[in-house]
Design goal:
Blueprint (H helix, E strand, L loop, with lengths): L1 H29 L4 H12 L2 H12 L3 H26 L2 E2 L3 H20 L4 E2 L1 H22 L4 H10 L12 H33 L3 H13 L1 H13 L2 H27 L4 E2 L2 H24 L2 E2 L1 H22 L5 H26 L5
Antiparallel strand pairs: 1-4, 2-3
Length: 358
């Protein structure tokens, strides 16, 4: 029964996000907002709607570990798994300057989350800071997009198109109904997902944090998976990357900002396990994007494969640690002594040898 509730919740989240993005995108385009702005804000943020719904729902249910773990785990999943799979489909070359400017913002948001969590919690004031920065970030995107190249505008125009004259979703009442239906589905889906996840944690003998970092994080990232992989297949590589970067920033600033505000005086507890390990993995993943994105070099297929292997290793570590398995020590030693150093050296050599993209 819990599996059915979880799947129903996941389906409701995916459908809700799709309805919300479609309704909001068509509504914005009807008011003359450019496809680039819609793609970088509504679409990127809309795919993070499940994370918001689940984290806020978890906070209201008193499950703050799921709320925090969902965001941290989703950011790790987005880069390592989604960009990894997308790069396997087609090497990802970042051409839009705007995305390369967004990456330092994503890294900055990750560092800020670490700094705010050093006292062991995110209180309502921390939430207000994050949410305020989210508003500023959105305004920055809109202003910056006006200076983007025609190629960037055209690429996003292919992906985000206004409703055709006379189409079923071209009318204002229909667009508003889509938004409302999407919000209802997100609320219901989040409630079901959190309920099932808590049951999973109890049945498997692991913490809410581990469930949030893995099952819930992967489940709420399904819209990002669909958007980025579809964009990669179509050859719209900037959209595949931009969706991940925008969603990661929104997860920290918007999702945790709103969750922190909702938590009130109690705040969101940042567990010691999260602060000692998982948040550092999230930071490392964010910093790993800098050399590739800032120089305009590509994420090659082999690098995408490395991303996926590291995500599998991260999940394996969480499972072994949760069960205090005898293999945990040997696994950690192998990763830190051999796999990580070899990967770092390989990436440095690859960056030095790659020619600058035009």
């Amino acid at each position: 029964m819990n599996i059915l509730i979880f799947l129903a919740g996941l389906a409701a989240l995916v459908v809700g996000a799709e309805l919300l993005v479609r309704g909001a995108s068509k509504l914005a385009l009807s008011f003359g907002i450019s496809p680039l702005v819609v793609g970088l804000t509504i679409v990127a943020f809309g795919t993070s709607a499940p994370e918001v719904a689940v984290s806020v729902g978890a906070v209201l249910d008193g499950r703050t570990d799921i709320a925090i773990g969902n965001v941290v785990g989703s950011n790790i999943f987005n880069v390592l798994f989604i960009l990894g799979v997308s790069a396997l489909i087609v090497p990802l070359v970042v051409n839009i300057q705007l995305i390369r400017q967004e990456v330092p913002i994503m890294v900055g948001a990750s560092v800020l989350l670490l700094a705010l969590g050093l006292d062991g919690s995110l209180n309502w004031m921390d939430g207000a800071i994050l949410f305020g920065l989210m508003v500023a970030y959105t305004v920055f995107l809109v202003v910056q997009s006006r200076r983007e190249t025609k190629a960037a505008q055209d690429e996003f125009a292919q992906e985000v198109q206004p409703a055709a004259q006379g189409a079923w979703d071209s009318k204002l009442p229909v667009q508003l109904a889509l938004i409302a239906a999407g919000l209802v589905a997100l609320v219901l889906g989040s409630e079901w997902l959190v309920t099932a996840s808590v049951s999973f944690a109890k049945a498997m003998g692991v913490s809410d944090l581990v469930i949030g970092l893995t099952i819930v994080a992967a489940g709420t990232s399904m819209p990002e998976v669909a958007t980025s992989i579809t964009a990669a297949i179509k050859g719209e590589r900037d959209i595949a990357v931009g969706n991940v970067v925008g969603s990661n920033t929104f997860n920290i600033l918007g999702c945790l900002g709103i969750s922190g505000l909702v938590s009130g005086e109690a705040g969101l507890a940042m567990s010691q396990a999260l602060m000692n390990f998982d948040i550092w993995v999230m930071l490392a993943v964010a910093f790993a994007c800098l050399p590739v994105f800032l120089t305009g070099r590509e994420i090659a297929r082999w690098e995408g494969g490395v991303f996926i292997v590291y995500y599998a290793a991260y999940v394996t570590y969480l499972i072994l640690a949760a069960q205090q398995h005898a293999l945990l020590g040997a696994f950690s030693t192998a990763m830190m002594s051999f796999v990580v150093p070899i990967t770092v050296i390989s990436l440095i050599v690859a960056v030095i040898r790659k020619p600058q993209s035009p």
